[in-house]
UniProtKB/TrEMBL annotation, chains A, B:
Family: Belongs to the isocitrate and isopropylmalate dehydrogenases family.
Keywords in alphabetical order: Lyase, Manganese, Metal-binding, NAD, Oxidoreductase
Entry protein name: D-malate dehydrogenase [decarboxylating]
Matches recorded under InterPro entries: ICDH/IPMDH (IPR050501), IsoCit/isopropylmalate_DH_CS (IPR019818), IsoPropMal-DH-like_dom (IPR024084), TTC_DH (IPR011829)
Cofactor entry: K(+); Mg(2+); Mn(2+)
Protein source organism: Muricoccus pecuniae
Superkingdom of the source species: Bacteria
Taxon lineage: Bacteria, Pseudomonadati, Pseudomonadota, Alphaproteobacteria, Acetobacterales
C-alpha cells in the first residue's frame, strides 16, 4: 500500500483537541482509500518550552525532514512571548522548509451563515495564495536609543524577484485550473513605495505569460473593503506575507467562521516537508473544554492528502465536511450549535 | 465675525465634483452660525502635473501655510504614477505639516444599509485613530541587482517613541471623551517582530496613565475579522499608518459606504494647517458624471469646522447628514438611490 510519513504536532491549546479529530478522519480516509499513514507524534509546544527552555529540540527540523508532511495544530500560549513560541517552531518550519506557498481557501459552505446579508455559497469561493517566507515578516531590524526620548525601532521588508516570481507563478497556475481563471493581486504601491511597486512590476511581467487569465489588482485597504462588499469578485488572490495573513483571516470571517478555515504551507518542489495547519490559533479562551471546531483541522488534513497525491481521499474529506454542514450534522458553538469537538470528528470519520 | 482661512484643493476626478458641494454646505453653515470662510482656490492636481511637470508649485507648502486648514477633494489619476501624484501633494502635506493624527470616524448611519446582516446604527460607531507620518509609509528603502535574477527591494518601517506616544496619547484622550471609554490597539507583534512589539510596549506604558480606559489589542489579521463579526466591540481604535489605512477602509465598508467616510489629518498643536479629505479617492470610473456621493466630503467639512472651533456648526452639518439619510432624502447610487452629487449637496445646504 502507499505509505506517507506524517509528523503530528498538536502544539498548544485547542490544537491538542482538534489534531486528534483530524487524525481520526485521516485514518478513516486511509482505510477507505487504501493507503497508510505512518505517524510520528511530537509534543513540541509551549509546555515543552516551560520544561526544557526550547520549543523543539535542537535537531527538531532535522527530525521533521524525515517526513513527507507535518500536520500541525496550533502554536502559542499566554505567558510565552510570541517571538519564542511562534519564532521557535512555526516560522522556522515555514522558512527553513521553504514552504513559500501558504494556500488558504475561503468558502461559504452550504449550511453556514455568513455575517454578510444575502450571501450564499455561490458568492464566496476564493483562495488566498500567500507568500510565506519573506516580505514584511523579516529578520532584519533593530532598536536604537533604548529608554530615551529619541528611541526608535526599524524593520525592513524584503521582496526578492525570486520570492515574488515563484508565488505569482503558483497563483497563475492555480487560477488556470479553476473555471473562472481570475487572479487578483493585493498591493499598496501608492503608500509603500519601494517594495510594492516592485511587486506590481513582477505581477505585470508574470501576467504576460498567462493571457487566458484575467487579472486585476487592488490596494490592500480597498481590497479588504471589497472582500466585504463584493466577495463574489474574487477567485484567486495573490498577496505578500502580511497582506495574505490579513486577507486569509478576513476571508473566513466573511465566509462565516474562522473555525473552518484550513491552510497549507507548501514547498511545491517537495525538497522539504510541507505543513498543514488551521488558520485559527490555540484559542486559550476555549481551550481544554472540548468545544473547539475541528473542521479547520480536518480540512487542513484534506489539503495534506491532496499534496500527498491522495486526491480522491482529499475530495472525500471535503465532501464529508460539506454534507455535514449542509445537512445539519453536529456543529460547534461558533457555528451556532452545541456539539463538542469529538462529536464533529466522529460524524465526519463515519461518512468519509 | 470669526474668520477662517481655508485653502481649497479639489484635486482630481470626483474631488472636483464633491468639493463644491462641501463648500456649498460650509457656506450655509457659515451664514447660519455667523462666521466667515476666506477661501483660496487652488487647482493643484494631476492636470497641473501634465501642464507643468509638478503637482504643486515649488512654494506650494509655503502658500498653504498661510491658511488655517486645507479642504481637499482627492488626488490621483490614471497615467500619473502614485509616487508622483500622491507623494507630490497628499503625503507631503501630511508629513511636512506634521498632521500626525488621521481621524476616521466609522458609523452606520440611520437609513443606510450595512452589508452585514442584522446590524443597526447602535452596532457600528467607532473611530480609527491612524498614525499619519511614519511607520510603514517610509522614505527609506531601495533596490539592488536591478534586472537580474537576484534583484530585490527593501523598505524600512520606522516607529519612533515620540511618534507612537503622541498618537496613542491622542487616542486615549479621545476615548476619555466618549461614553464607552474603550481603546483597542492594532498590532502584529507575533509576525512583525521588531517594530510591533515596540508599539505594544508604548501602548502598555501609555495605558498606565489612563486607568479609566478599558484597553485591548488584537493582531491586525483577527482585528479585520472582528470588524466584520463584532463591529460592536469597538469604540476607539489606534493603529499604525498602514494598519490604520486598512481599518479605515474596512470600517466604512462594514458601515455601508465608503462614499460617506470622512477623514481629518490633524496637527493637534496647530503649528501647521490641518487637512480634511474624504477617505475615498478620485474614482476615475465615475468621475465627470455628477453621480459621486458628496457626503464624505461634506462630513470632512464638519470635521474641519470642529477643528476650527465651530463646534455648533459642525454638529449642525453632521445632524443634517443624519436626517437626510434617516428620512429618505436624496441619495446617490452607492446608497441605492439615483440622485446626483449636487442634489445631495443642495438638500444638505438647505437644512444645515
Ligand atoms: C492614497 C493613499 C496613499 C492613501 C493612504 O494610503 O494613506 C489613502 O489610501 C488614504 O487612506 O488616505
Ligand atoms: C501566528 C502568526 C505568526 C501567524 C502569521 O501571522 O503568519 C498566523 O496569524 C497565521 O496566519 O498563520
Amino acid at each position: 500500500a502507499r505509505r506517507h510519513r506524517i509528523a503530528v504536532i498538536p502544539g498548544d491549546g485547542i490544537g491538542k483537541e482538534t489534531t486528534p479529530e483530524g487524525l481520526r478522519v485521516l485514518d478513516a480516509a486511509a482505510r477507505r482509500f487504501g493507503f497508510e499513514l505512518e505517524l510520528t507524534h511530537l509534543d513540541w509546544s509551549c509546555e515543552t518550552y516551560a520544561r526544557t527552555g526550547k520549543m523543539m529540540p535542537d535537531d527538531g527540523l532535522e527530525r521533521l525532514r524525515a517526513h513527507d508532511s507535518v500536520f500541525l495544530g496550533a502554536v502559542g500560549w499566554p505567558g510565552v512571548p510570541d517571538n519564542v513560541s511562534l519564532w521557535g517552531l512555526l516560522i522556522p518550519m515555514r522558512r527553513d522548509f521553504d514552504q513559500y506557498i501558504s494556500l488558504r481557501p475561503c468558502r461559504l459552505m452550504p449550511g453556514v451563515r455568513s455575517p454578510l446579508a444575502n450571501r450564499g455559497p455561490e458568492d464566496i469561493d476564493f483562495v488566498v495564495v500567500r507568500e510565506n517566507t519573506e516580505g514584511e515578516y523579516s529578520s532584519s531590524g533593530g532598536r536604537m536609543f533604548r529608554g530615551t526620548a529619541r528611541e526608535f525601532v526599524t524593520q525592513e521588508s524584503v521582496f526578492t524577484r525570486q520570492g515574488c516570481d515563484r508565488v505569482m507563478k503558483y497563483a497563475f497556475e492555480l487560477a488556470m485550473k479553476r473555471p473562472r481563471k481570475k487572479l487578483t493581486s493585493a498591493t499598496k504601491s501608492n503608500g509603500i513605495t519601494f517594495t510594492m511597486p516592485f511587486w506590481d512590476e513582477r505581477f505585470a511581467e508574470m501576467a504576460k505569460g498567462y493571457p487566458e487569465i484575467s487579472t486585476d489588482q487592488f490596494h490592500i485597504d480597498i481590497l479588504c473593503a471589497h472582500f466585504v462588499q463584493h466577495p463574489d469578485w474574487f477567485d484567486v488572490v495573490v498577496a505578500s506575507n502580511l497582506f495574505g495573513d490579513i486577507l486569509s483571516d478576513l476571508g473566513p470571517a466573511v465566509a462565516g467562521s474562522i473555525g473552518i478555515a484550513p491552510s497549507a504551507n507548501i514547498n511545491p518542489e517537495r525538497e522539504h516537508p510541507s505543513m498543514f495547519e488551521p488558520v485559527h490559533g490555540s484559542a486559550p479562551d476555549i481551550a481544554g473544554k472540548g468545544i473547539a471546531n475541528p473542521i479547520a483541522q480536518i480540512w487542513s488534513g484534506a489539503l495534506m492528502l491532496e499534496h500527498l497525491g491522495e486526491a480522491e481521499a482529499a475530495a472525500a474529506v471535503t465532501g464529508a465536511i460539506e454534507s455535514l454542514l449542509a445537512e445539519g450534522g453536529p456543529r460547534t458553538r461558533d457555528l451556532g450549535g452545541n456539539a463538542g469537538t469529538a462529536d464533529v470528528g466522529k460524524a465526519l470519520a463515519e461518512v468519509v
